[in-house]
């Protein structure tokens, strides 16, 4: 049974119906339509915690999707799955690939910063102060970029930057 028929809640069903209508009326190629179907199925599987199924769909979407902007979101979602599974190195690879295609993806920048911050905390707990400082510096760099793109988001990151003295100017983070 296709993933689309498994959606049980009203919002998912509504999104699926609207997406199907839009997909039929948009002048897109067969490959683009197939890529979108795989992407949509990947998002559905991911939201249900079916990460292996989501990855299969995302990888199929990557094979078919040619648009760099759309590919960036597929890569971002693959990064999310690897991050959720604790595979931070792989997650970073996919987040960076997404940013190569779409530099205006603050959520990827934020997630990279979160990983570096986590690694900094881990190094700090292991009394590896030089490594911790390096990871915190990287987190700072990526959070500042994310905040520049989305100034009203990432409040916890902004607070961390302020409380650690890493915020020198309240209006521009770069």
UniProtKB/TrEMBL annotation:
Subcellular location: Cellular thylakoid membrane; Membrane; Plastid
Keyword Repeat: yes
Biological processes annotated in GO: photosynthesis
InterPro entries for this protein: PSI_Ycf3_assembly, TPR-like_helical_dom_sf, TPR_rpt, Ycf3/AcsC/BcsC/TPR_MFPF
Gene3D superfamilies assigned: Tetratricopeptide repeat domain
Membrane topology, record value: Peripheral membrane protein
Annotated TPR repeat ranges: 35-68, 35-68, 72-105, 72-105, 120-153
Domain of life: Eukaryota
Keyword Protein transport set for record: no
UniProt cross-references to SUPFAM superfamilies, sorted A to Z: TPR-like
Keyword entries, A-Z: Membrane, Photosynthesis, Plastid, Repeat, Thylakoid, TPR repeat
Leader sequence residues: none
One GO location term (cellular component): thylakoid membrane
Segments passing through the bilayer: none
Stored SMART domains: TPR
Function: Seems to be required for the assembly of the photosystem I complex.
Family: Belongs to the Ycf3 family.
Protein's name in the database: Photosystem I assembly protein Ycf3
């Amino acid at each position: 049974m296709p993933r689309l028929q498994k959606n049980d809640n009203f919002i998912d069903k509504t999104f699926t119906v609207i997406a199907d209508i839009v997909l039929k009326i948009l002048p897109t190629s067969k490959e683009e339509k197939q890529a979108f179907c795989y992407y949509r199925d990947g998002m559905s599987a991911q939201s249900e915690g079916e990460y292996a199924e989501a990855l299969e769909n995302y990888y199929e979407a990557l094979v078919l999707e040619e648009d760099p902007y759309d590919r960036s979101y597929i890569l971002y979602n693959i990064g999310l799955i690897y991050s959720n599974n604790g595979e931070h190195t792989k997650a970073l690879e996919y987040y960076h690939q997404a940013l190569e295609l779409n530099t205006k993806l603050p959520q990827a920048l934020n997630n990279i910063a979160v990983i570096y911050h986590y690694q900094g905390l881990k190094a700090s707990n292991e009394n590896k102060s030089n490594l911790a400082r390096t990871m915190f510096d990287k987190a700072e760099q990526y959070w500042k970029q994310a905040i520049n793109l989305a100034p009203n988001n990432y409040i916890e990151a902004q607070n961390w930057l302020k409380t650690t003295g890493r915020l020198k100017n309240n209006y521009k983070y770069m």
